[in-house]
Amino acid sequence: MTKLIIRWLLLSAALMLLAQWDAGVEVKSFGAAMIAALVLGLLNAFVRPLLILLTLPVTLLTLGLFLFVINAFTFQIASTLLEGFKVHSFWDALLGSVLYSLWGLVIDAALERLMPSPRRL
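The chain above was modelled as a monomer; its predicted structure follows.
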């Protein structure tokens, strides 16, 4: 449970950093970043798999590159749902989702190294 909370806080900080780097993404406060990280996590858990399933032919045709569009779309959905998190255009959402995903990978790798999961037999 501690690892999940730390991951959530680090992803929220990544959103704040993203807002500093990318002019097309705005986050009003750290609280708004925490809510946005939570909403993005929920969208990635529930909506993204449905979108992938519905767009499977296009994804296969583009050799998986359409997944970037799906990620950008979920980023924009979160932007429309939240008050303190705004993405101005599709290209900003695309860049923001790529950077956010990369930071998520780094955070997950660091947390796994620092707090390894217990091995089960």
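The chain has a mean pLDDT of 93.
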